[in-house]
Each structure stands twice: as C-alpha cells, then as structure tokens.
Write a structure and sequence with these properties.
The chain has 163 residues and is an alpha+beta fold. The protein contains 3 helices and 6 strands. The strands form 2 sheets. The protein has a 4-stranded antiparallel sheet with strand order 3-4-5-6, with no helix packed on it.
C-alpha cells in the first residue's frame, strides 16, 4: 500500500518538473525574440513599399531572363579583355566559328579481352561506361587497351594515356 502513494507523488513531481522546463523555455524564447526584433512584436510594412519591392524584383527577373536568352559564345565578363581589344576599344562583332569541343580525359577504364569499357570526362560532364564505337561529347571511341584509349573526331585521332 505504501508504494502507490509514493508512485503518485513521483508522478506529480515529474509533471511539475516538466511544466517548469516548459515555462523556462517559453520565457527564454520570448526574450530571444524580443532581442532579435528589437522589441517590435510585428514588422510594419507600408503597402507602397511592398509594391515597389515587387516591381524591382520583377525587373531583376526580366533582366536575368534576357541575359539567359542571349546566344552563347560571348566573352566572359569576369575575365579581362585581351590587350588588343582593350587598346583599340574595338568590340567583338559578327558570329564566331563554332568552338572545337575540349578533348576528354580518362575517368576510369575497365579492361578485359571480351568487353573493355571506359568512362571519359570533360570539364562539364562525365560519360557512362563507353565501348568501342560509342560517342561522347562529339568524340568516338576507336580502341580501348589497358593503358590507353584512342578516340577520334572529324578525322582527328587522339590517344589518351592512363595516369
């Protein structure tokens, strides 16, 4: 019989401790919010300021979409212009010839006498497993050996050595 009142007392003590922890965390959260917001319960925003912010955001989106719609091949704006362009003040005009794709590098080779395969990579992509005759980034796999891979593009042949 003495065990039941003691269990009930422990239950009440546990509930009281839990309530105290909840109150403590609530007060702590309220103080943190007051400190962050500077005593303001809610930020006051004027309707005309909100409309102006939305208009500015819409203009930025339109400008960004216009930049994305431009054809590729323009000079990188984050690099300095070549000296002859800087000195003459001339601007690049007219279409450029298409750029030759970069020569891929070997990412991995699985070589056996039955079905050799290779993974090639460029600066922007990595191929799936390729076999002789497969194409990647404009290059065709001509042969695969344990130490090298031969690829070709438009009559040009390149031998990539394993590192």
């Amino acid at each position: 019989m003495s065990q039941a009142p003691q269990d009930a007392r422990m239950l009440w003590v546990g509930a009281l401790a839990l309530l105290m922890v909840g109150v403590f965390l609530g007060v702590r959260t309220e103080r943190a919010m007051t400190a962050v917001l500077g005593g303001q319960a809610q930020a006051q925003v004027k309707p005309d300021e909100t409309a102006a912010q939305w208009a500015a955001l819409a203009k930025q989106v339109r400008d960004q979409n216009a930049l994305l719609a431009q054809p590729p091949g323009r000079r990188d704006p984050f690099r300095e212009a070549p000296a002859e362009v800087r000195e003459s003040g001339a601007r690049e005009t007219g279409p450029r010839p298409p750029a030759r794709p970069a020569t891929p590098a070997i990412a991995a080779v699985l070589f056996d006498n039955v079905n050799p395969s290779v993974k090639l990579r460029t600066s922007s992509a990595t191929s799936d497993w390729l076999h002789v005759g497969d194409k990647f980034a404009g290059w065709t796999v001509v042969s695969i050996s344990g130490s090298a891979v031969e690829i070709s593009q438009g009559g040009e042949r390149v031998v990539l050595q394993r590192r």
